[in-house]
């Protein structure tokens, strides 16, 4: 399979220059996954609305005297400045949340890294030998058109189940994990 960079990719097969904290030296990354880019459309459109709001709505509020009091011009500037800082923080958080929530399939295990907030992340992993079942769920018009969905990896015993949410090519991912399970079970 071809190798390529996973810098901003949502689906990277055998990625180059990718590693994670608990990776073994002899462990090879097979898949590097993020949510499908189409899942970002909602917050991107909302960010655009937040960005143009001061330009469109503030003059309308001023023109129709919808506020019971008036602000000096310098206050309007400060309010706009804080508005755009908040908008930038929202955009940054949403991008970082998408960028750092990753799922990794290696030749030995499956790893789910969830970025909760700036100073906290959660990592769940299970070995391939402990996987009992892999299920993909693709439902709805957009998910079918853009070929993305959820994958549930059910594990044996007290191991936590792992979910890949909104990942591209779910049937291909399930096929790869099933092949890895077959190799482990035949050894």
Structure, explained:
This protein has two domains: about 10-35 and about 100-185, Pleckstrin-homology domain (PH domain)/Phosphotyrosine-binding domain (PTB) (PH-domain like, Roll); about 40-95. Helix 1 runs antiparallel to helix 2 (about 75-100). The strands form two sheets. Strands 1-2-3-4-5 form a five-stranded antiparallel β-sheet. It has a three-stranded antiparallel β-sheet with strand order 6-7-8. The protein is elongated, with a radius of gyration of 22 Å. The longest helix is centred in the middle third of the chain and has 28 residues, at about 75-100. The protein is built from four helices and eight strands; from the N terminus they run ββααββββαββα. About 40% of the residues lie in helices and about 30% in strands. It has about 190 residues and is α+β, with helices and mostly antiparallel strands.
By CATH reckoning, the class of the largest domain would read Mainly Beta
Number of helices: 4
Question: Unreliable segments (pLDDT under 50, ≥5 consecutive)?
Answer: none
Query: Would you identify the CATH H-level superfamily of the largest domain?
Result: Pleckstrin-homology domain (PH domain)/Phosphotyrosine-binding domain (PTB)
* Average residue-wise pLDDT: 89
Query: What is the CA–CA distance across the termini?
Result: 23 Å
Task: Give the second-level CATH assignment, the architecture of the largest domain.
Answer: Roll
CATH topology of the largest domain: PH-domain like
Number of strands: 8
Shape: elongated
- How many domains? The number is 2
Taking the sheet with the most strands, its summary is: 5 strands, antiparallel
């Amino acid at each position: 399979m071809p190798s390529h960079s996973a810098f901003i990719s949502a689906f990277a097969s055998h990625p180059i220059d990718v590693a994670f904290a608990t990776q073994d030296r002899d462990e090879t990354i097979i898949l590097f996954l993020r949510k499908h880019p189409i899942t970002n459309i909602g917050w991107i459109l909302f960010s655009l609305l937040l960005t143009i709001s001061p330009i469109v709505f503030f003059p309308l509020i001023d023109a129709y005297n919808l506020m019971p009091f008036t602000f000096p011009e310098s206050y309007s500037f400060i309010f706009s400045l804080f508005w755009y800082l908040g908008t930038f923080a929202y955009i940054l958080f949403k991008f970082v949340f998408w960028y750092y929530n990753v799922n990794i399939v290696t030749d030995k295990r499956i790893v789910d890294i969830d970025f909760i907030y700036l100073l906290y992340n959660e990592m769940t992993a299970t070995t391939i030998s402990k996987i009992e079942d892999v299920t993909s769920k693709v439902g709805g018009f957009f998910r079918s058109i853009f070929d993305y969905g959820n994958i549930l990896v059910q594990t044996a015993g007290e191991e936590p189940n792992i979910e890949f949410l909104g990942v591209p090519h779910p049937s291909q991912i399930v096929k790869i994990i099933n092949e890895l399970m077959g190799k482990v079970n035949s050894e």
